[in-house]
Amino acid sequence: MLVLLSPTKTMKDVVLQDKKLNLPTFLDKTKSIYNVLKTFNKEDFQNKMKVNQKIALENINRMQSFKFDKCGVIAIKAYDGILYKRFDVNSLNEKELNFANDTIRIISAMYGVLKPYDSIYPYRLEMQSKISIDDSKDIYDFWGNTIALELEKENDIILNLCSKEYSKSFISHLKNKEKMFNCEFLVQKDGKLKTQATLAKQARGLMARFIVKNQINDINLVKNFSSDGFRFSEENSNNNNLVFIKYS
User: Fold this and answer.
1) CA–CA dist 238, 248 (Å, integer)
2) E strands in 15-78
3) Does the pLDDT at position 15 exceed 80?
4) pLDDT at position 143, please?
5) For residue 16, what are the domain limits?
6) Kindly report the CA angle at 78 between 115 and 4, in degrees rounded to 5?
7) CA 72: distance to chain centroid?
8) Inter-helix orientation angle 42-49/53-64, to 10°
9) 8 Å CB contact between 137 and 159
10) Domain tally, the chain
11) What average pLDDT score do residues 195-214 get?
12) Which residues pair with 184 in a beta bridge?
């Protein structure tokens, strides 16, 4: 079973070397993106990526020190958002980390598909960015079916914990959609089921942690997840959509 996670906008800028890091699978495509981003000035980053001046300047500095070697940040430790805080990689033991490297895949606009032990460098690029790379119309177009083909190469069940922005980069290209399962984390309030973004991100991180800690390879065992008040709802789920509800 593969477990898919979205990246986060915030990343750690300090380069922390970890042992036995690997190179990402699609470095050639990453280099194509880099060759465009390294030409951007402050205004380019602000206008094309819809970021403020501080983030634009940060991106310029990042591109100046961007590399393609095994001395970067371990991917699973590079992202600094809510999901990864709840995943809490630093508390995992070696056996759990190895299982995570076999199971978890991070979908990235810059790198395509990342394994936890891949060496990466900090960047800021969202999948929905309207930037043309190699005559593509945007980042989705640039990656095309590349991400989907890589995910299906392992011929395994896919548990999608990605946001809609990142799911869009591969779902339409999957040939075996019956092998992909989505997770929804809903909160019941005033008799209605709603998605609360922050709680959903936290739950995705906790779900990924639950799978790694328990070495889960069976999609049916995912239904046993119970954390932060979320419980599996058979009534609201269907064959390929697993719904977990937190009752207020």
Assistant:
1) 23
2) 73-74
3) no
4) 98
5) 2-247
6) 40
7) 18
8) 120
9) no
10) 1
11) 96
12) 243
